[in-house]
Specification:
By secondary structure, the chain is of the alpha/beta class. It is built from eight helices and 14 strands. InterPro entries: DUF1883, DUF1883-like_sf, TIR_dom, Toll_tir_struct_dom_sf.
Length: 262
C-alpha cells in the first residue's frame, strides 16, 4: 500500500498529533510495531480513519513510539501532508502510578540450567512466541527491553512440535526471573490445541502468576474459546499497549519498582 509516513519517535500520553492535509485521506496513528506489521502486509491496529477535514487531531493514547500514516485508500493521485506534535497540556498530571495489573505477576530468582541448556546462563526475561510473530512483537519487545538494560532470552525455535520444545521452554522459564508468552492465532495453530497452556504460561507460587501472556491480535472471546482459564490471566495486548510501553512496564516489575507501572 502506497502511503506517507511520519515517525513521531517517543511520545508521551496526552500529546496530540496534528495532521494537515491538502485533500481527503486516511489518517492513521499507530505504534511502531503496528507500522512494522503494515509494511509487512500483516494485520495491524490503529487510531483514526478517513479524514474529510483538515487539520486532523489525533490524541496519543499511551507513552511509546508512534507513527502517523497517510494514504488515499488505493485511489489514484497524491496527497500532501504535514504533522506536528503538540505536547501534553501544561499542568496535566500524570496518572497516579499505583498497582497496575502487571504488578500481580511475580518475579522470582532464576535457577541455573543444567549443562549447556540455554548456554548455562540465567536471564531477566524469557520470551516464547510463534515464529510468525517474531518481527511484529518478539524482536521489537526484546530490543526495547535490552535498551532498558534488561537481559532477554528470546526463544528462536518455531513452535511446531511437542515434547522437546516444551522442555526447552520450561528450561527457559525456570532460568529467567520473568517469563513472557506471545499468544496469537498462529501460536494456537502450532499443534498445542490439545495441551492446556496454563502449564506453559503460568507457574503457581503461593497462588501468584509468574508468567505474563501477551495477546497479539486476539480478542478476549478468542482466548476464552481456546482456554477459558487463560482469559482470566493477567495479560497485555498489542491492540492497546505499545511495545515500548510494554517494555517499560515489564522493566519496572523486573527491577522491583512497582511505582513505574501504570
Amino acid at each position: 500500500m502506497q502511503h506517507l509516513y511520519f515517525d513521531l519517535k517517543q511520545q508521551k500520553k496526552g500529546a496530540v498529533a496534528v495532521v494537515t492535509l491538502d485533500k481527503q485521506a486516511n489518517v492513521r496513528l499507530m505504534t511502531a510495531s503496528n507500522y512494522g506489521a503494515l509494511k509487512s502486509g500483516r494485520r495491524f491496529s490503529f487510531h483514526g480513519g478517513r479524514a474529510t477535514k483538515s487539520p486532523v487531531r489525533l490524541p496519543i493514547p499511551s507513552n511509546g513510539h508512534w507513527f502517523v500514516v497517510v494514504d488515499l485508500g488505493g485511489l489514484a493521485g497524491r496527497v500532501r501532508a504535514s504533522v506536528a506534535v503538540q505536547p501534553p497540556p501544561p499542568g496535566m498530571l500524570a496518572p497516579i502510578r499505583d498497582r497496575g495489573p502487571i504488578n500481580d505477576v511475580q518475579v522470582r530468582e532464576p535457577i541455573e540450567p543444567d549443562g549447556d541448556a540455554l548456554g548455562g546462563q540465567t536471564w531477566d526475561v524469557f520470551i516464547s512466541h510463534a515464529s510468525e510473530d517474531k518481527e511484529a512483537v518478539a524482536v521489537p519487545l526484546r530490543n526495547a527491553l535490552v535498551d532498558l538494560g534488561i537481559s532477554v532470552w528470546l526463544d528462536k525455535t518455531e513452535l511446531t512440535i511437542g515434547d522437546s520444545l516444551r522442555r526447552k521452554i520450561d528450561q527457559g522459564i525456570r532460568s529467567s526471573r520473568f517469563g513472557i508468552v506471545v499468544l496469537s492465532e498462529r501460536f494456537f495453530d502450532k499443534g498445542w490445541t490439545n495441551h492446556e497452556l496454563d502449564g506453559l504460561v503460568t507457574r503457581t507460587v503461593a497462588g501468584e502468576q509468574t508468567l505474563l501472556p501477551i495477546w497479539h491480535n486476539l480478542t478476549c472471546d478468542q482466548v476464552r474459546a481456546y482456554s477459558p482459564s487463560l482469559a482470566d490471566k493477567v495479560a497485555l495486548t498489542t491492540d492497546t499497549v505499545a511495545i515500548e510501553d510494554m517494555a517499560e512496564q515489564i522493566a519496572g516489575v523486573v527491577r522491583g519498582r512497582g511505582e513505574d507501572v501504570a
